[in-house]
Amino acid sequence: MKLAVESLKKPAAAGHSPAYYASLIVGVALAHGVVRIFSRTHILHAGRHIEYEIREDLHAKIISLDMPYFSGERTGDILSRFSNDLTNVRMLLGFGVLNVINTALVYISAISLMFRISPVLTLYAVVPYPLMILLVKRVSHHIFNHSKRAQEELASLSSQVEENVSAAMVVKAYCREDSQVEAFREIGTKYLYYSMKMANLRGILIPFMASIGGLGTLIVLLAGGARVISGELTLGDFVAFNGYLAMLIWPTVVLGWILNLLQRGAASMSRLNAVLGARPSIREPSDPVVPERIFGEIEFRDLCFGYNGIPLLKGISLHIRKGMRTGIVGPVGSGKSTLMRLIARLYPVGDGQLFIDGIDINRIPLRKLRDTIGYVPQESFLFSRTIADNIAYGRGDAAAGEIEAAARLAQLDGDVAGFPNTYGTMVGERGVTLSGGQKQRTAIARALLKNPAVLILDDPLSAVDAGTEEEILKGLAGYYGDRTVLIVSHRLSALRDCDLILVLDNGRIREQGTHEQLLAMGGLYAAMHREQQLRDEIAGY
Fold first, then answer.
1. pTM listed for this prediction
2. ∠ at Cα 290 (284, 295), nearest 5°?
3. Region of poorest pLDDT, from 80-84, 102-106, 307-311, 467-471
4. Which of 92, 204, 221, 372 has a CA 20 to 30 Å removed from the CA of 334?
5. Helix (H, G, I), strand (E, B), or coil: what is residue 425?
6. Range of the domain at 241
7. Do residues 262 and 364 share a domain?
């Protein structure tokens, strides 16, 4: 640059014509443009690939976590980490890294060239920069804290929307639209507050960075101009020095934006690490016992269990032989569903308390255990796929005939025949296009198709009428065979043919026996039976 300026004043002294230097500058500019294109492309692509890898790791981690983790997390919060937090990390790893490299190269190159021209002027130019470092130090942790709070409030917004969409029918049925709008507004106000805090800090930081560059330029103009007048510095050196100094203005401004990206990305990464660092409480056994086949003999030995330190099941001792049909009844909150979840190891159970075929359940590999259990929970969840896909969810290789046979056993085939695309009918999100009874029967068919050694039916017929329940139970009676079957039901009629009926109350087994034996005892079961008979008589009038 110095020679180009000198060539305008004394072409012969410079050695080349101004056109030569102009062409050289154009060539350097073009080369700079090509380098920037390739650098931006490669680094930004790298950021996208890293985002993809983190998303894959997040999904794999989410799939590996168990019910205790999801019990304490909100769906909207998890989804927010997959979208907003990942976007912040990608911006940091893409644009952030790119500008850090560009800024570092420009600073090193420009300051080196400036120092060659005049070390004194270079010192004058960088005098204001300690002020910038001081401000960055004071502001950075505030940006991090506000950014993290903003992401948390955004996650709350996502959770609120997810709940409102999932419970739209309940919201409208109870005329709670206004209250939900107000709840959303409250969370949105908090999100706005922390977002504005970040915006204010950014509004202070970036102009301050720009003024630092302008202040350095002003100092150089005053000190350097005097040196040019006194002859200590040539005009070409002075112009070149100012040109190099001008190269620092934009990187200095960008530093403020980079700092914002860095703190937002760090806050988001800390939220992602909270998921990636989570460990399931149910783990594969360190010394597994892998039986060739699980037959379904279940034994509880003084089993105790609770949620969050609150005891629920207390001293459960029971031996269920292979092929037994066991019914479980009891008041709400007595621990019936919890007992079923422990058999499938959906929640952790202590060593030496639950045995399958004489093997401690904690020593059986999870896949081996769960592949032999057909579990129908109280809330029948269906995926947004076809009816056939939902039935075959546990067995992706199932043939169409097997799917239809399972549907017949669950008394679902008659309903499916009336659908426009029969088994190819899409059920919508969470099975929204099906009735409650149809969803429950689809879930039953899904469990039956697995051909499990242990079949767990956790109140699976609550949404069907008594007549349909009777038909389903008759169909299942021929299917049970030598399978171990556990049925939880609030209708005692569903348990009449069970080999053993347990009556749970307050987490303990209060009564056990056959239907006739329990009636003869005249205890809790008999009272429940009389109450249901009275309700049926009243309903008959």
1. 0.70
2. 115
3. 467-471
4. 372
5. coil
6. 2-148+200-276
7. no
